[in-house]
């Protein structure tokens, strides 16, 4: 079997002492930031990007991937104990997880989350191992028109299914695309929107924008909140779930693994959507749906399994098509670009050490995470005592020094500061910086694919209809748009009717 | 572009229902800034030269994108989305100080190196924004500066601008 040979190569890379260390560092940091509210995986990876620049490419990606899936485990802890989601995908876990804590069942809630996460993660890695090479063969034949369609779909899903207002997110995505046009035109070399500033000829540095919007913006915002760290009063006991708990949640875990895997592969998929979908599915299937929201263990097990499965399978579009499907993966994409590696269909052939090394490291990382999250969970809970002020101050210094170290140019420090202020304004005014950063990364790929499509088709937009993949995607999008348009009108009418009735009564 | 216009009519529909109330002005500030940016970008792209669809000029793609910015920002200006707005508190004004401290940090960093500005920035943030005691703030600021200097300048070999403190110390040892 080819897959086993490849995996053998992967494990030989992943078991190198340095790489083992970096998986461990990655998953520990991931769990830790999952626990610390306010510092999500996106901000952390943004903070660490300049440091990974000095590392070996494989080790860098292994560590960053560990942070990503590690944060999915860690985010659960505060959701269950304090009803504070450590990262967005864990919001759903607060519904039933916190109720279980109130009933004195915090232990089993955390235990089943860790076990579900492990199973979901591992199922997805196995899927990734066997499907990825097949998909890579197909992906080579994917034309530029399909690329355009896939990216448009990804951006659309991220903006419409994400948190907050769709119109605001669409606007931010457009701004991200606009920012990515700053610098030299990729074909003619003409300077675009550089305003005569030589440092802008190469375009904005992705790291500086990401660190500004997520790092500095988030930090400035965290300083506004004065609340001190909440004390954990719950005693955690019986972390290993009982036989009944296992029986109750086994179906949810199985369905969550599958659902998560499928959603993660879609552009725009990943954590949040899959955990919401799994929760909805479990609630619908339950004999007694009223138990949900009152401490149903399936409501914790399913979503936690699904978010780990999807965050793992989301590596498929990244590594095979070179399209990051969510913001955290856009960060990883940026990290690979910093290393001079462009992810895409040829990655698996050109750099099998990276491709299989990262996949193999995920098997190891998931085992480490179960150990960290079941017997050693107490240590992470202690971290909740670190005060926000101290954390923010040091993170800020990491940002400032880190961004300088990429190009050894103080100009990038100014970019970070300016985008930090933008990021803070965006948080205050309800604009999500996620779509902006994702669009900024996709911008150049999108422009290139668009121009190539136009060259192939002799300037005709017909290519988006004649290309089967693109036609399917745009077709589905059109149906989806029409559907949401109709349902919105219906809702508006329904809302208007009682209002009118009320007015008539007066 | 037809997609964008479709979007526009679609969302404009429930407009009059939502954009009521006397205090919608402040919600329009950011969309108006974005709208102006979008229009400026449309003009800028036009000037870059559009070329043709078969042979796109440097301005064609930016034009597509800036039209998207303009349309979405225009919709947000007409129907401001009041969701997720956060209140401005007294601590918000404190933040102006935080930003200013970073401006000073970058200027000093370029002029006199890492050590002094880093120490001052850490101390200020820990004491004023973190509200830690003087003792803890001083300890962490000194320790933090040392850790960052050793980590970045010594271990990672990042070339910081000439440092007056480290420079003086090496000169003294050298003598």
Automatic annotation (TrEMBL), chain A:
Transmembrane stretches, start-end: 20-39, 109-131, 138-159, 195-216, 258-281, 318-342, 354-381, 388-405, 411-427, 434-450, 462-486
Instruction: List keywords of the entry alphabetically.
Output: Membrane, Transmembrane, Transmembrane helix
State the source organism's domain of life.
Answer: Bacteria
Residue ranges constituting the DUF112 domain according to the UniProt record? 20-438
Keyword Iron present in the record's keywords: the answer is: no
Q: Which InterPro entries match?
A: DUF112_TM (IPR002823)
Q: What is this protein called?
A: Tripartite tricarboxylate transporter permease
User: To which species is this protein native?
Assistant: Cryobacterium frigoriphilum
UniProtKB/TrEMBL annotation, chain B:
Q: What keywords were assigned to this record?
A: Membrane, Transmembrane, Transmembrane helix
Q: Where are the transmembrane segments?
A: 29-48, 60-79, 99-124, 136-158
The reply on keyword Signal is: no
Pfam families registered for this protein in UniProt: TctB
InterPro entries per the UniProt record, alphabetical:
DUF1468
Give coiled-coil spans as residue ranges.
Answer: none
Q: Which residues form the DUF1468 domain?
A: 30-161
Name the record gives this protein: Tripartite tricarboxylate transporter TctB family protein
Q: Which organism is it from?
A: Cryobacterium frigoriphilum
């Amino acid at each position: 079997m080819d897959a086993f040979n490849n995996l053998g190569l992967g494990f030989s890379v992943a078991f190198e002492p340095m790489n083992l260390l970096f998986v461990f560092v990655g998953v520990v940091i991931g769990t830790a930031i999952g626990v610390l509210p306010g510092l999500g995986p996106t901000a952390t990876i943004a903070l660490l990007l300049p440091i990974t620049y000095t590392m070996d490419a494989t080790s860098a990606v292994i560590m960053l991937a560990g942070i990503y899936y590690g944060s999915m485990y860690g985010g659960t802890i505060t959701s269950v104990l304090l009803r504070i989601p450590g990262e967005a995908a864990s919001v759903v876990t607060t519904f039933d997880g916190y109720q279980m804590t109130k009933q004195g069942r915090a232990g089993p809630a955390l235990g089943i989350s860790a076990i579900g996460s492990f199973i979901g993660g591992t199922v997805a890695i196995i899927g990734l191992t066997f499907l990825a090479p097949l998909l890579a063969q197909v992906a080579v034949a994917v034309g530029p028109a399909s690329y355009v369609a896939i990216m448009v779909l990804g951006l659309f899903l991220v903006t419409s299914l994400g948190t907050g207002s769709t119109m605001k997110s669409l606007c931010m995505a457009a701004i991200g695309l606009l920012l990515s046009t700053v610098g030299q035109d990729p074909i003619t070399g003409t300077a675009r929107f550089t305003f005569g500033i030589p440092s802008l000829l190469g375009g904005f540095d992705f790291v500086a924008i990401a660190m500004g919007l997520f790092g500095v913006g988030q930090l400035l915002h965290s300083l506004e909140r004065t609340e001190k760290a909440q004390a954990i009063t719950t005693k955690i006991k019986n972390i290993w779930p009982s036989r009944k708990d296992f029986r109750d949640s086994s179906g949810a875990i199985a369905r969550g693994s599958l659902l998560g895997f499928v959603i993660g592969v879609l552009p725009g998929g990943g954590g949040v959507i899959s955990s919401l979908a799994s929760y909805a599915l479990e609630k619908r299937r339950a004999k007694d749906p009223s138990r949900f929201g009152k401490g149903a263990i399936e409501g914790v097990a399913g979503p936690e399994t699904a978010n780990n499965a999807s965050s793992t399978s989301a590596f498929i579009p990244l590594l095979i098509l070179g399209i990051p499907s969510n913001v955290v993966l856009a960060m990883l994409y940026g990290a690979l670009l910093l290393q001079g590696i462009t992810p895409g269909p040829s990655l698996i052939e050109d750099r099998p050490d990276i491709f299989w090394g990262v996949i193999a490291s995920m098997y190891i990382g998931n085992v480490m995470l179960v150990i960290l999250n079941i017997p050693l969970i107490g240590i992470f809970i202690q971290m909740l005592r670190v005060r926000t002020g101290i954390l923010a101050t040091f993170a800020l210094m990491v940002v400032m020094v880190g961004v300088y170290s990429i190009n050894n140019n103080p100009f990038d420090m100014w970019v970070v500061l300016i985008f930090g202020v933008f990021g803070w304004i965006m948080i205050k005014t309800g604009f999500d910086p996620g779509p902006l950063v994702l669009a900024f990364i996709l911008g150049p790929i999108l422009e290139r694919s668009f121009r190539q499509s136009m060259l192939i088709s002799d300037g005709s937009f017909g290519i988006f209809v004649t290309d089967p993949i693109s036609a399917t995607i745009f077709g589905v999008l059109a149906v989806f748009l029409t559907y949401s348009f109709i349902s919105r009108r219906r809702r508006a009418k329904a809302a208007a009717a009682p209002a009118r009735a009320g007015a008539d009564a007066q | 572009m037809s997609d964008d216009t479709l979007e526009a009519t679609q969302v404009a529909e429930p407009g009059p229902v939502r954009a009521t109330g006397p205090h919608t002005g402040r919600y329009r500030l950011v969309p108006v800034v974005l709208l102006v940016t979008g229009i400026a970008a449309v003009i800028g792209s036009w000037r870059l030269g559009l070329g043709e669809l078969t042979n796109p000029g440097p301005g064609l793609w930016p034009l597509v994108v800036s039209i998207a910015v303009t349309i979405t920002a225009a919709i947000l200006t007409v129907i401001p989305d009041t969701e997720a707005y956060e209140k401005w508190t007294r601590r918000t004004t404190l933040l102006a100080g935080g930003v200013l401290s970073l401006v000073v940090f970058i200027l000093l960093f370029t002029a006199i190196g890492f050590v002094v500005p880093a120490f001052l920035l850490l101390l200020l943030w820990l004491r004023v924004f973190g509200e830690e005691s003087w003792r803890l703030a001083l300890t962490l600021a000194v320790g933090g500066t040392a850790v960052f200097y050793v980590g970045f300048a010594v271990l990672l070999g990042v070339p910081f601008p000439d440092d007056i403190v480290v420079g003086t110390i090496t000169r003294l040892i050298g003598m």
